[in-house]
Amino acid sequence: MRSIRARPDRLDLTAEDDRGRRVPLEVRPVAPDIVRLHIGAGPARPSRLLAAGAPTGTEWALEETATGWAVRTSAVTMTIDRDPYRLRLADASGAERLVEEPHDQDIRGAYHHFPTGHARGLRWLTAGLKPAEALFGLGEHFGALDRRGQAFSSWTVDAFGVRSDRAYKNVPLLLSSAGYAVFFDMTGPLYYELGQSSVAAWQVTARADHLRLYLILGDGIAPLLRGYHRLTGAPAVPPDWSFGFWISRWGYRNREEVMAVARRMREERVPCDVIHIDPYWMRYHEGHQGDLVWDESAFPDPRGMIDELKGLGFRVSLWESPYVPLDSGMRTEGERKGFLLTAKAGGGPALVHGFAKPSAAVDFTNPDAVEWFKAKNRQLLEMGVAVIKTDFAEDVPGDAVAHDGTPAEELHNLYPLLYQRAVFDATKEVHGYGLIWGRSGYAGSQRTPVHWGGDPGCTFADMAASLRGALSWILSGAAFASFDIGGFFGIPILTDPPSPELYVRWAQMGLLFSHARAHGHTAPREPWAYGEPALSIFRRYAELRYRLLPYLYSAALRAVDGIPLVRPLIYDHPLDPTTHHVDDEYFLGPDLLVAPMFKSRGSREIYLPDGGWYDYWTERRFDGPRWIDYDAELETLPLFVRSGAVIPMGPELQFVNERSWDPLTFDVYPGGPSVTEVRVADDHRNLEFRLTVEGARLLLEGGPLEYEAAVRVHRPDGPPLATVLGRPLALQGIAP
Fold this sequence. Notes:
CATH class of the largest domain: Alpha Beta
Number of strands: 44
Strand content: 25-35%
Low-confidence stretches: 725-736
Shape: globular
Distance between the termini: 66 Å
Mean pLDDT: 93
Largest sheet: 8 strands, antiparallel
């Protein structure tokens, strides 16, 4: 370390590398539990990822130590060793959470990982790994949820499935069970080596002239994600109807197909809210591009179709892409106005390849191009389209020149964020709510939900990988997620559809997840296509989802506080090391534990964390933490309710806004003397109920007064006690 200078808002240092070259460092405490570290050139260059209102400073003090210096806030101490240079991050008690590792060597002195440094246009950070430390996050990846032992690139691509280390959504946020997170405020490519070459260290390498990262300290996953949200923005909450069921196919070819599916849904009494139409609604559709203009030969009078569907209780979702067909008027207009990414050589459009035909790409770094693209979306939304499926955006041409000068390599990961933000904002401007159905993503995408998980194959292995990808996406800052129920494509390739048993098992998982959409490549994904008993089982779980809407939506509203609707077990039980490796179960809201079956029937092992748990179907009670063997026939999804929970249930519905959630039933699962409180709120319905359970005393408050409400107390040794209330009042003396 060559020099140090304290300024009011930061600490400026100069270090020396092994060749005697000077390396600038900036340490900037931005919150009591968050410190920004910038190594290399350009510390003042603006961020493309931070949200408005992100913290920029906090009280801190500088102290000289025997080995260097210590930067202290009320929650964090960052120690900077002088010689050799080394950073250490500790909590207020002095316990070290993150320590750089300069000595990751073998017996010969050869390095497994070089110490933090730079060479040949690369910069890297090397940190130590504790023996039992687990690592999470980094976007939607489909391998084990614990990233330790893995290695992959942060480079958004069309993953063509869910079986590799490629990813549609990359988020440069690494979470550790040791109580820290590292957010890399960068958009260029990153390479993660997470204890694969060496069990003693992890390393992140950037192809850049700097590293900018935020070190976040917290006890558990939840506070680490809240710190990340303070930097990049809190998740938005989608509209209530988005939590209904979505039906889709690639794709409905004309209006007759769409209307036939809608009518059959109502005839079969399968609850459904959204019908999605893939590229065939447009004049130009090569599967990955389009001109955003209706093909009225296949879809005559689209406004009339939308109104007809609305009369049946359906909303319409339309597919789109940021790629523009070269033979379309949209390309001609966009090129003339300078709204497309241009190629370095020749000045024409930079071309996206890899599909049937090359296409141009909208330049979302140009504010005028953003408004142009939003205007085309507004026309559709003002016609009555409810939501846009923002597909693709993983392919920025390597020779692209952006309006604002962003190099193509730095634009690549950022592009999905800019694209989806434009569509999300247009939807909010027209409808008053923000919503997309997106595939790609990056840091900050939690502000523009909802995202689904790409193109899984029709196998149980892909079903499990889809769940891992969704849970990893949640551990990367998102609050909502989905996947293609049934799988997208057949294995072997183009064999379709999935087996009825796979379809049922995937539907059970998908219908008890954040958002639920069935979607497939060529064959139908409507439940009647799979015969009986698949249709009846599907209907049963769809009806359960709709009865759970008060519970789901009330839990979804907590997303603004950083609490995801679906989350892996580690989120709620970070101190239980067993949960670090459980990635085939999840919590749905605060009180439901779902353990999907990845086979037609038989048994599976289920981990129940600390506390009491009721089997939803039998009301048998278990006490955790423990593993259990659970036998499940095809019609049964293992589902558990937390002891002490109150689950608000609504009436049977065919679509979310068919009628009010009246009557409401509050299902009470006794959990001892502790106080449990549940709140059901919905601004659209002027609805707010609060049920407090304290031992044998229940108090139901709120309204509206005309609502009918029922309280059912479940007892493992007998039938549930039920009391029907004409209006909210206090109930005394209901014993568990």
